[in-house]
Design brief:
heterodimer; A: mainly beta; globular; B: mainly beta; four-stranded antiparallel β-sheet
């Protein structure tokens, strides 16, 4: 299985801050990586697929980069609605695997 | 508009079988390339992929849970059913279903809100 290591596990930040979340794969997954946002009680929301392709309707505050084994999700200027848990997922090979999640708190 | 919704019991006893239904709208599971998957989120842990069923009825399972899982679809009802046998307290989690797209990797573009299943006697 491909292991996904996400860091940090939690992060405190303020509105307007720029934050970076990283995700590392245990082997190369090319650009087969997705990022999700999850607010408890709501449906997880796909933000980015293909490591850097922003989904339609997602704010341009979000951006993704990386390929191979190392990836980042950047939120350029935090807004109140961005405080949530973020997950990465490798979409390269079954079994599909996720990072441990990053809880972004005020 | 694409929506998915999970339904099933909120409480099951150890050793029982869990049956969850994903009812979706806005797409068809008979369309080439489409699939529906199940993923769970145990409290305080990472998301865990469980199973995936494709438009052509091909199925994939998590290797660690394969012996306990079954996924089926009813295309006419727009439903996908997941069964997990021999439930244990470690199976306590929020269970999600999601639409699979395969145009660039196996990714999930729409998710349901999830249903919390607690395993306890």
């Amino acid at each position: 299985d491909i292991q996904m290591t996400q860091s940090p596990s939690s992060l405190s930040a303020s509105v307007g801050d720029r934050v970076i979340i990283t995700c590392r794969a245990s082997q190369s997954i090319s650009s087969y990586l997705s990022w999700f946002q999850h607010i408890p009680g709501k449906a997880p929301k796909l933000l980015i697929n293909g490591a850097s392709s922003l989904r339609s309707g997602v704010s341009s505050r979000f951006s993704g980069s990386g390929s191979g084994t190392d990836f980042t999700l950047t939120i350029s200027s935090l807004q109140p609605e961005d405080f949530a848990t973020y997950h990465c997922q490798q979409t390269y090979r079954i079994p599909l695997t996720f990072g441990q999640g990053t809880k972004l708190e005020i | 508009q694409i929506t998915l919704k999970e339904s099933g019991p909120t409480l099951v006893k150890p050793t029982q079988t869990l049956t969850l239904t994903c009812t979706f709208s806005g797409f068809s599971l008979s369309t080439s390339g489409v699939g529906v998957g199940w993923i769970r989120l145990p409290p305080g842990k990472a998301l865990e992929w469980l199973a995936l069923i494709y438009w052509d009825d091909d199925k994939r399972y998590s290797p660690s849970l394969r012996s306990r899982l079954t996924i089926t679809k009813d295309t006419s009802k727009n439903q996908v059913v997941l069964t997990l046998t021999n439930m244990d307290p470690v199976d306590t989690a929020t269970y999600f279903c999601a639409r699979r797209r395969g145009d660039y990797g196996e990714y999930f573009d729409y998710w349901g809100q999830g249903t919390l299943v607690t395993v306890s006697s």
